[in-house]
Structures are given as C-alpha cells and as structure tokens.
Design goal:
The chain has an 8-stranded parallel beta barrel with strand order 1-2-3-4-5-6-7-8, surrounded by 7 helices. The protein contains 10 helices and 8 strands. α2 packs across α3 (52-60) and α4 (81-92) packs parallel to α5 (105-117). The protein starts with 9 loop residues before the first strand and ends with a helix. The chain has 240 residues and is α/β, with parallel strands linked by helices. It has helices at 21-31, 44-50, 52-60, 81-92, 105-117, 145-155, 168-177, 199-204, 217-220, 225-237, and strands at 10-16, 40-42, 67-74, 96-99, 121-124, 160-164, 186-190, 210-215.
Length: 240
C-alpha cells in the first residue's frame, strides 16, 4: 500500500506543468516552505523533457515534500501496462500516481493493485473540469462513469481521489458516497483559479474530508509564485 501523508489536513499542491529544470526548480524553491503547500504535482511535460527520474531528482534536491506524478492521464491503457508503468515510477522516486483508468474495471484493478504493490499511493480520478467531457455536456464519457471508477477504487482501499472543483454538487456526491463511519476520502481538487473553481466553495462542499487544491498557472505563471502560494495556502488552511 502507498502511505502518502501530507503535513496538514488541508492545503495546496502546486502543479509543475513546466518543461525546463530551471523553471521547475524556481517554483519549488519559491513555494516549498510556504505554509499550506503540502506537495507538488509533476506533469508529463517536465517528465518527457527531462526524464522522470531526473525531474524527481531535481525536486528532491530542494524538498522532501511528496511528489505526485501526473502522466496525463495514466491508467487509460490496457491492464497489462500497469505493472511496467508503476515499477518505472517507483524507480524514479515519486510518492503518488494520478490515475484515470477509464479503460474499464480491469484497468482500475491492475493500476491500483500495482501502485499499491510498489508502495505508491494511487490517486484515482475520472472526471475533468470541462463541460463537454461527459455525454450530458456533448462529450463521450457516460455521466456516471467517473463516479463508478472512484467507487471501485474505494473498495480496493484507495484513499486519495481527484474531483473537479468546478462541480460542487459532484464534490458533495463523492464526499458522501465515499464516506463511512471509519473512512473519509482525501480529495484533491482540480480547476481552481483560471478554470473557475474556488477553494472556499469546493472545500466547504466536502465537510469532514481532507482537501487539497491542485493549482497550476495561478502559482507557476504568477510574477511571484511564493506570494500566490501564500494566498492560496491561507485560503486552504482556513478549513483546518
């Protein structure tokens, strides 16, 4: 099992959707000591440009905060790829894997299982903060598909889930659906800032859950990533 632990019950996770090691290091150096910053999401652009292990090594030289790898979006593959993918990510030194196993129940089972076997924390998602993603908005994914993925993962012991902050009713539904007297889900929320999501509204929709906002351009494209992270971190910590 993965044992992903954040240093506070609420917070933000800056997304490092950057291509150069200099830009990645700059954002990490500016924000890793900011109160409320609990980890970093490393994106595919940096991993492809630098190599996943090299990108992780560059971050580890600055901080030991958890690194979540987002392969945009891993898990959407045949189940046989799960073992190879998870082993490579383990060797690279990440702590958690963002997984969107839309390929079906077998994909959910294999990617979650191999993440856990490699002692990586699976962070399970299936929904995007875009109106036209699901059938009801003109897209291709059935409306209840993402929720069924999360339910399957929850039954397998997954503790961390990704939900769009822009759908407050969806946040409430996931929070209620995956909560039991002995277990509360940890929710990582996308779409904060430029896509219209609000930390205050999204966190309030999931009472009792540990909540973290994944923030990208609002931090890394800011003139001062440190100040931007402070503002967002303070907003998250108001729920502590």
């Amino acid at each position: 099992m993965g044992n992903l632990k954040f240093r506070s019950e609420y917070g933000i996770v800056p997304a490092l959707d950057l291509e150069s090691v200099e830009d990645i290091r700059r954002v990490v150096e500016d924000t890793c000591d900011v109160e409320g910053v609990v980890g970093f999401k490393l994106g595919m652009a940096g991993a492809l440009r630098l190599g996943l292990a090299n990108a992780v090594r560059s971050i580890r030289e600055i901080t030991d905060l958890p690194i979540l790898y987002d392969h945009q979006k891993a898990g959407l593959d045949i189940p046989d790829m799960a073992k190879k993918f998870c082993a490579i990510c383990r060797e690279a030194g990440v702590d958690g894997l963002i997984l969107f196993p839309l390929a079906g129940p077998s994909a959910v089972a294999e990617f979650v299982t191999h993440s856990q076997r490699q002692e990586l924390s699976p962070i399970l998602g299936g929904d995007f903060p875009m109106v036209e993603y699901k059938v009801s908005g003109g897209g291709y994914v059935v409306d209840d598909g993402p929720t069924r993925i999360l339910e399957h993962g929850f039954k397998m012991g997954v503790e961390h889930f990704i939900v769009p902050s822009t759908n407050l009713e969806g946040v409430r539904r996931v929070s209620e659906l995956l909560s039991t007297p002995s277990r509360k889900p940890t929710l990582l929320m996308t779409g904060i800032g430029t896509m219209g999501g609000s930390i205050r509204d999204a966190f309030a929709a999931a009472p009792g859950c540990s909540c973290y906002a994944i923030v990208g351009r609002a931090v890394y494209a800011s003139d001062s990533p440190k100040e931007a992270a402070k503002v967002l971190g303070d907003a998250a910590l108001c729920f502590a």
